[in-house]
Amino acid sequence: MDDRAARIRTLIEGEPPSPGNPGALLRRACTAAADTLTASGAGISMMTEAGARGIYAASDPLTEHMEELQFVLGEGPCWDAFASRRPVLIPDLDRESPARWPMYTPAAHDSGIRAVFSFPLQMGAVRLGVLDVFRKRSGPLTGDELVTALTFAEVTMTALLDQHEDAATKGLEGDLAETVEHRAELFQAQGMVMVQLGVPIGEASARIRAYAYAHGRRLDDVARDVVERRLHFDRDLP
């Protein structure tokens, strides 16, 4: 983990880290992103593959309103970023075609928002949601700000997966031998996914964790399915 990612991880997790509370983690991520990127606000919405909204957080009431509007209206940069799996960067809302978001753009303008930047929270084929960064002034993100925003999205997703894995691990019952058995099964599954996808072991581990999170399953159960060949990973696996 580089210095930028390490600093952001500390901001998101808090000192000491706050375990088992994704809502608190998301709120800290939003506040830290808004402050670091000199934005008027930042919001995160967790979404399913079908586009349904799960938990969400915002750095301030105006941003919460802007996030809510996108889901009430069914349009906006958050939707586009999630669907396209790519950042949506709008440095000047006034220059966007009225046909793109016919209801959202006027509402955002009336609320004083002039620029919005949306970054999907994703890992491989798995998407968990979107980080939105809002500004009351027009203008693009600098190169450094863009890298920082992308790092916020990446670190937030990783922290969520770690929290999910930690909660599952602490829920295990049994003695040390049982725990070691679970860990060995996970390592075996990581090796199998590494071969299936042709990726490094770190990415294989991340894909298994992302799958477990997205499907609301325990990490050990997913690992067991991989080992017993009930689950096979490919690059398009949701």
Short description:
By secondary structure, this protein is α+β, with helices and mostly antiparallel strands. 53% of the residues lie in helices and 15% in strands. A hairpin with a 5-residue loop joins strand 1 and strand 2.
CATH T-level topology of the largest domain:
Beta-Lactamase
Largest sheet, if any?
5 strands, antiparallel
Q: Strand content of the residues, in percent?
A: 5-15%
Helix content: 40-55%
Descriptive notes:
With 238 residues, the chain is α+β, with helices and mostly antiparallel strands. The protein is 53% helix and 15% strand. The protein has two domains: 3-159, 2-Layer Sandwich (Beta-Lactamase); 172-227, Winged helix-like DNA-binding domain superfamily/Winged helix DNA-binding domain (Arc Repressor Mutant, subunit A, Orthogonal Bundle). It is elongated and about 55 Å long. A hairpin with a 5-residue loop joins strand 1 and strand 2 (53-58).
Which short descriptors sum up this protein?
238 residues; alpha+beta; Beta-Lactamase; Arc Repressor Mutant, subunit A; 5-stranded antiparallel β-sheet; 9 helices; 5 strands; elongated
Record the SSE blueprint.
Layout lengths: L2 H11 L8 H15 L4 E7 L5 E6 L2 H13 L3 H8 L3 E3 L13 H7 L4 E9 L2 E10 L7 H28 L5 H22 L3 H14 L4 H9 L11
Antiparallel strand pairs: 1-2, 1-5, 3-4, 4-5
